[in-house]
Amino acid sequence: MRTQMHPWKWGMLALAACLLSATSIAAQTATTAPSEEAPADLTPPPAATTKPATQTPATAPAADEATVRQERPGTFEVHFHEAGLRQAFQLLSSEGHKNIVATKDVTGKVTADLYGVTFREALEAVLKSTGYVYEEEGNFVYVMTADQKKKSEESRRKMMVATYRLAYLTAADAKILITPAMSKDGMIAITPAATAGIAANITDAGGNNYAADDVLVVRDYEENIARIGDIIHDVDVKPEQVLIEATILRATLTENNDLGIDFSTLAGVSFDQLGFTTKDFTNINTPAVPTPINGSNTPAAGFRTDVSSTVPKGGLSLGFVTNDIGVFVRALETVTDTTILANPKLLVVNKQRGEVMIGNRDGYLTTTVTETTATQSVEFLETGTRLIVRPYLGRNGLVRMEIHPEDSSGSVSLVGTSALPSETTTEITSNVLVRDGHTIVIGGLFHERTIAGRTQVPLAGNIPILGAAFRSTSDTTVREEVIILITPHIIRQEEDEATSQQIKDDVERMRVGARKGLMWWGRPRLAQTYLRWAKEAVAEGKCGKAMCNLDMALSLEPRMIDAIQLKERLTDQAYWHTEPRPSTTRIIVEQLMMQELGMPVELIVPPCKPLHERDIAPAVRQQQDIGERKLMPLCEQVECVFGPCCVTTRTVQQPAKTGPKSSVPAPKAGPRDAAPPAMTVKPAPAGEAASGGTDLSSDGPGLFGQTPAGPTKTPSTPKK
Description:
Layout: H1 7-32, E1 65-72, E2 75-84, H2 85-96, E3 99-102, E4 109-117, H3 119-130, E5 133-137, E6 140-144, H4 146-156, E7 159-165, H5 171-178, E8 187-190, E9 215-221, H6 222-235, E10 241-267, H7 271-274, E11 277-278, E12 284-285, E13 301-304, E14 316-321, E15 325-342, E16 345-349, E17 354-369, E18 374-393, E19 398-415, E20 418-427, E21 430-435, E22 440-456, E23 471-490, H8 493-516, H9 523-540, H10 543-556, H11 561-571, H12 584-597, H13 618-624, H14 634-642, E24 648-649, E25 679-680
Parallel strand pairs: 3-6
Antiparallel strand pairs: 1-2, 2-4, 5-6, 7-9, 8-9, 10-13, 10-15, 10-16, 10-23, 11-12, 14-15, 17-18, 18-19, 19-20, 19-21, 22-23, 24-25
Helix pairs in contact: 2-3, 9-10, 9-14, 10-11, 12-13
């Protein structure tokens, strides 16, 4: 865009050109005719530089002057030499067509030569060299000091209040995070911190403490509020969860080998004479030896070893007995293989502590004795499987865990008058880093203990080969292996919820399978069988048979909810419609409530409340907190289990009600106030209707008491 110059500017330029020409001629004359008094200058003159006419700079202005020359559209050349700032602003204002207003504190002079600059570049260069700043509003440029600009900005800033409701972050943590983004004038208020822990306490139940989400109320400038909102949006996110699975495998193998030989011999007498006996040729029972032996003083002697008694019962026993010699050999090998597998699982939120304990708590008394008193307290020995963990989620699916798995067994035994606990445990405490879904061994132990025991006759047991007859040996080898594995799983909400639902269904299948494993003549099995027969009868349209089976089921299991609900659907009456009101207090409360509404208490019909709530006035329904009961059509209820139902639907017309007028306004008709369609079934075989129950034939009323409006019937299409 080309700038148009005023006529007076053209005159000024012409005058400047004339002055420039005169000055050049005078300078040339002075150069060609130097003064005679001036010494000769032997230095060669500098080389002259020729520039195009358009690039020749203007003559340097005198003191307190400023000159400007346009080069091309949008840019110009300007020279200041000890020019006042207000004079410079006036010149720049003329070139940039901007209104420049300076405060009274803007003073000083500027010296600068600027080439090919725009209005903004020239203004910023002048102000930067003099230490002033500016603000631009529309076509006005306000020049001021830095302090004045700061005060101006502060005067225009507006304080505002914002409320942030936190979903996952605590208010105290959020306060710490947003403090750097607040100004010194900002203020913040937070809700009280929630009580941590779930310790049992019968005196403190929370009272009227704050029970909603954590809230931040922040008062600050608008730009700070915006930054605070961004910070909270970034940090208040749903925490991750980790499922920790620990596997503790402990295997113990114990091998015992025992061998013992007993040798007995007599001299001068036999076993028969002494009355010695043996049982199963395992040992000799020694009775009292009479004196004298056989009524004479005949010398007698005996020799016996008893080392096989250390061999436990069982295994192999050999015996050889003669008149005066008896040999018994006992051998036993025992192998015990024990494997203990513990697999606790625990779901924990990131950075939170989790603990699971499955086992026993054995109590014992401890006594604390002081100089004056003796105090007894109960402590517990906890044994079983325990897992304590605190996970820290990292990047790339890595999980760092502080973890303590433990598997222990123990007991409390009585030693004298004191209870002494003893415990055998396998545990480890570690801080590990594991990738999501991977298994790592965090600990293990291999322990082997070998014991070789010998019981023998001194000296004789040391004789090679023959010494085996005078000793027993017991060899024991115990090998123990312990392996502890850890597997973390980062929870993915949708997939893991679907898996959990499948596991829940599997648990229900196990429960049903366990019930089906009971004896068929048991009460639970018979009640389930009668309920199944009742649903089959409803699907076939045999209401009398269905009622008979329901009565049998309820006689066996009076609290079977499925049977009760099905009977209510068939009879169109509540299960307790013949029962009196169980509570006098409830009757009085209902009377008071109806008295506040100014209505008669007879409008409350508790026995029919679950089924006839649409007949209750809206005011009574609201006062009694009676909601709508949504029921699946009976045909669809049995159809989804036993296949297509023979029940058909037909159009019915709700008969007009007659009776005494009531002061209660009738409720407005709505979708749920429409009469449900009546249902008809195929005629039952002869004698079925006489067996009792509700008649479902097409000639009588429907299941819910509606009378058909006409003979037209529209059979429904059975669902596939």
